[in-house]
Amino acid sequence: xxxxxxxxxxxxxxxxxxxxxxxxxxxxxxxxxxxxxxxxxxxxxxxxxxxxxxxxxxxxxxxxxxxxxxxxxxxxxxxxxxxxxxxxxxxxxxxxxxxxxxxxxxxxxxxxxxxxxxxxxxxxxxxxxxxxxxxxxxxxxxxxxxxxxxxxxxxxxxxxxxxxxxxxxxxxxxxxxxxxxxxxxxxxxxxxxxxxxxxxxxxxxxxxxxxxxxxxxxxxxxxxxxxxxxxxxxxxxxxxxxxxxxxxxxxxxxxxxxxxxxxxxxxxxxxxxxxxxxxxxxxxxxxxxxxxxxxxxxxx
Length: 300
Ligand code: PAF
What we know:
- By secondary structure, the protein is α/β, with parallel strands linked by helices.
- The protein folds into two domains: 20-190, HUPs (Rossmann fold, 3-Layer(aba) Sandwich), CATH 3.40.50.620; 203-298, Pantoate--beta-alanine Ligase, Chain: A,domain 2 (2-Layer Sandwich), CATH 3.30.1300.10.
- Helix content is 34%, strand content 18%.
- It has helices at 25-37, 53-65, 93-100, 134-137, 141-156, 168-180, 210-231, 237-250; strands spanning 20-22, 42-47, 68-73, 106-108, 160-164, 186-190, 254-262, 276-284, 290-298.
- The longest helix is centred in the C-terminal third of the chain and has 22 residues, at 210-231.
- It is globular, with a radius of gyration of 20 Å.
- The model is unreliable at 5-9 (pLDDT under 50).
- Pantoate (PAF) is lined by residues 46-48, 76, 79, 145, 148-149, 167, 170.
- Pathway: Cofactor biosynthesis; (R)-pantothenate biosynthesis; (R)-pantothenate from (R)-pantoate and beta-alanine: step 1/1.
- It comes from Cymbomonas tetramitiformis.
């Protein structure tokens, strides 16, 4: 079994030494266990790579929560249905390694997390929480996410795991899985980050044409207008939702869903009297185009 030296924290400039690259489950587990033996806590940031500033903010948050930070980079085939964008999902392992230099202690970049003979049988499902929103149009997505996150928790054995609330439903499902299945992991949710023009940061944004990118700004514009209206007392979720659908459609987006849901259980809300999340998925560029998600938390 590989032995890892885990002592040594951040350098004086606040930067960490070059991260250890771990390719196998065994190496990953040994590294994590060595950290624990040294009395250090481990914070995990799971990603699918092609890292942007949103991911890096999760990594910085992890560094404030755990003594040692590990970032996993793995495009999880288990959460893509046939015909989805697995093959064209952007990848840049070299760029990811460069972006993570100085920010984390280890990078887990496995070749594969599932056995190659198609024999994977066990999936985690989150019953009600996985059905609405992205679960409606991507029926296997959340079982794939929950399963790979459970695998990562079992391999990395982190004390803390940091997720972005851009994938609000994913964050809720992971929190629930941890509670229901007694994973000894603290799940931290970080607010969504936006580009300067308001577009929610996403690895898929690079695939947008200039025209579609301009159109896609209608999503954050419409969400912001809606949040202002809710803060000024608007309660009629049905009308507000329709205004947002119209704004996105007029900008050239094919709306997959726009929903006003209770922030705790994702149930659709007709009258806004509690904390809600307005969640959006829309595709730009027609069939085979780019599917974007966004959301905004709103309180009456
Ligand atoms: O949010 C993501 O990038 C992925 O869904 C995750 C959590 C890394 C699982 O593959």
